[in-house]
From TrEMBL, chain B:
Keywords assigned by UniProt, alphabetized: Plasmid, Signal
SUPFAM superfamilies linked to this entry: Periplasmic binding protein-like II
Protein name in the entry: ABC transporter substrate-binding protein
One Pfam family this sequence matches: SBP_bac_8
Length: 298, 354
């Protein structure tokens, strides 16, 4: 009986059958040209800077970036933080997206608006909000002291926890929207069918809804992870002494020490590390489910 | 004064709008000044730029910048010179001079009466104003009956407990640490020139590290930290602490052991209008009446000694270069930092992450 509700595994075959005909490739031309000028060429130049030494090509910048020392520590710290933030966004955002997707369409609009509104407020303002909330004389501390829960103010601002909270808050709407859009394409009659065939709602969710929405969750994870990698202002404003992100470090190299070679190398390492992690996750997901990361909608 | 990240866009919008309006009404001659935006840009606009344009017909546009050195470098490498005058503070001046990115200043135009001291009269830059990185103290958080004196007390977390903030930069902080360790302000660079001296400064910084809740990165940050009670003791630019005092916050400024720094302006190599840029430098940054007006608007002072003939004694004592304040501070050695920053910066990052 349980095999009857296993998810459809025809994703690959269907995708292969829909390869675009050559004659319509020109539709990609404007995007390709833009991509070439605003991404490939500049990144290529940065890559060149990163390997230019005093005399010809040199790997010294990469040795400085990846050798034992502060830069490697900061790089791993950045990857770790972004990983955690992306996971937290999925854990918090998935139930919200599920809730949203299961509302009737006319109720969704208001809820979607509530989720979208923070996106229109600048990251800077949202980060400052957290400074007000988490400060020594901020909302939370005043409340805690007011009800007598603590004697003195707790140090919440300028900690790793503050960076987590602020970054998750900034990125959460993005994660919810991506997952929501996948969930709305899931055919709900499959769930109904599973109930008719005797499955409990929980079993239906685990065996039908979860696998079908996993693609969206993985996409949301990758998107938030990549966005988190480049975070700059939030960790600088609410992070503690140890929450330096690689982006802050690159800015120091470009503007302060004027070591553009090292700055470029750090940038390239960040790009490559980001691609590697995202690529690995996408590959693992495809292996595990036989689906591409584009939402199992069928 | 500077690096007011979040006001920059607003400042740029205001300044940019004013520039456009001026461009529309006047003729062909124009100069572009890169600047840090915010209150300083508005002050310049009111006291220098508007009268200058009225008198000479030369349009002056301000361009906002955060990191002039990197942008000077870009303009020189691409040979696309957008600025006539650019700020070149800290390592900006030594690095750009060495690389040949600046035009020499014609001192017969900018300072014909030879009023400026050598520190403001550089081959490639004029010292427009001086500002100071000083200690700001929340007086209401001081322990009963104790008075706070300087770097020794900043380091003394037993007598003066409470969270503190310093700038996220080795420059200045190594100097401050040495002064706290008993080095005379006038001697700090002699000590720092030896590797043992740098070690000594870092060892002293180890002591204060646990009390630093945050390392500030932009000029407005320490002021907000003081105002919100997040820290009790902070380094900050003198003018910003004085702004807090004007807002009636219980904050005191400690000049002792302060780091006096110069806001230099240079003419970018290949600038379109070098002659008028020199004229503007003389008009704005070496005319005592205007300099006195600038000092009244913002407590940053010029090097032209004639301003003290115009300013009252009360006004003068608020300035970083007033004789009494000058005596207790040291001058930040930008040559030292231009030479040593890349190396020490790396050690700083490592030390901070430990």
């Amino acid at each position: 009986m349980s095999d009857g509700v296993a998810m459809p595994r025809d994703g690959k075959g269907a995708a292969r059958g829909r390869r675009a005909p050559l004659s319509s490739l020109w539709l990609l031309a404007p995007a390709a040209v833009l991509f070439l000028f605003v991404f490939i060429l500049p990144v290529g130049e940065v890559a060149l800077w990163s390997v230019q030494g005093e005399a010809g090509l040199s790997a010294e910048n990469y040795e400085a970036a990846l050798g034992a020392g502060p830069y490697r520590t900061i790089l791993f710290g950045t990857l770790q933080l972004s990983f955690g933030v992306a996971c937290a966004c999925i854990l918090v955002g998935y139930p919200a997206a599920y809730f949203l997707a299961s509302r009737p369409p006319r109720n969704r609009t208001l809820l979607l608006l509530l989720i979208l509104t923070p996106l229109w407020v600048s990251v800077l303002v949202r980060t400052f909000g957290w400074i007000v909330v988490l400060g020594r004389e901020g909302l939370v501390n005043s409340m805690l002291i007011g009800i007598g829960a603590v004697d003195g103010p707790l140090q919440m601002l300028y900690t790793r926890g503050a960076v987590y909270i602020a970054m998750v808050q900034v990125l959460l709407p993005v994660a919810i929207l991506v997952m929501f859009s996948t969930m709305t394409t899931i055919n709900r009659s499959l769930l109904m069918a599973s109930r008719i065939l005797g499955a409990s709602p929980w079993r239906g969710f685990v065996h039908i809804f979860l696998p079908l929405s996993a693609g969206g969750a993985v996409n949301a994870w990758m998107l938030t992870f990549v966005l988190a990698l480049g975070f700059f202002i939030t960790p600088a404003l609410v992070g503690g002494p140890k929450e330096t992100m690689i982006a802050n470090l690159i800015a120091t190299q470009i503007t302060l020490t004027l070591d553009w070679g090292l700055g470029s190398a750090l940038g390239m390492v960040l790009v490559i590390a980001g691609f590697t992690v995202v690529g690995a996750i996408a590959l693992l997901f495809r292996r595990a489910t036989g689906l591409s990361g584009h939402g199992g909608s069928r | 004064m500077k690096k007011l990240l979040w006001s920059l866009s607003v400042g740029a919008a205001i300044v940019g709008g004013a520039g456009d309006a001026a461009l529309a009404q006047s003729g062909n001659k124009s100069i572009t000044i890169a600047n840090y935006g915010g209150a300083w840009a508005e002050t310049l606009n009111r006291i220098c730029i508007e009268p200058f344009t009225k008198e000479t017909g030369i349009t002056v546009t301000q361009a906002a910048t955060e990191d002039s050195l990197a942008q000077i470098r870009v303009q020189q490498t691409t040979k696309n010179i957008l600025w006539d005058i650019a700020p070149t503070e800290r390592s900006g001046l030594p690095v750009s001079s060495k690389n040949g990115w600046l035009e020499p200043i014609d001192w017969s135009v900018v300072d014909p009466d030879n009023k400026l001291p050598p520190v403001a009269r550089k081959q490639y830059a004029i010292g427009a104003i001086a500002y100071s990185t000083t200690i700001g103290v929340r007086t209401d958080k001081l322990p009963e009956g104790k008075s706070f004196g300087g770097w020794k007390d900043f380091w003394d977390v037993k007598t003066f407990p409470g969270p503190r903030t310093l700038r996220n930069s080795p420059a200045e902080n190594l100097e401050f640490a040495l002064i706290a360790d008993g080095v005379k302000p006038s001697e700090v660079y002699n000590v720092l020139r030896s590797p043992e001296g740098v070690d000594r400064a870092f060892r002293k910084l180890d002591e204060i590290k646990p009390a630093i809740t945050v390392w500030w990165t932009s000029g407005q940050q320490p002021v907000q930290l003081l105002a919100s009670g997040e820290v009790f003791y902070a380094t900050a630019f003198n003018g910003r602490i004085q702004q807090l005092q004007k807002d009636k916050l219980p904050v005191r400024i400690i000049w002792d052991g302060g780091s006096l720094d110069v806001s230099y302006y240079s003419i970018v190599k290949g600038a379109r209008n070098v002659a008028d840029a020199q004229k503007f430098m003389n008009y704005c940054w070496n005319t005592p009446t205007r300099l006195a007006e600038i000092a009244r608007a913002m407590p940053y002072s010029s090097f032209n000694p004639d301003i003290y003939k115009i300013l009252s004694a009360d006004e003068a004592k608020e300035l970083p270069t007033s004789p009494a304040n000058l005596d207790v501070q040291f001058a930040l050695d930008s040559e030292y930092w231009a030479e040593n920053l890349p190396r020490i910066q790396k050690r700083w990052e490592a030390w901070r992450l430990q």
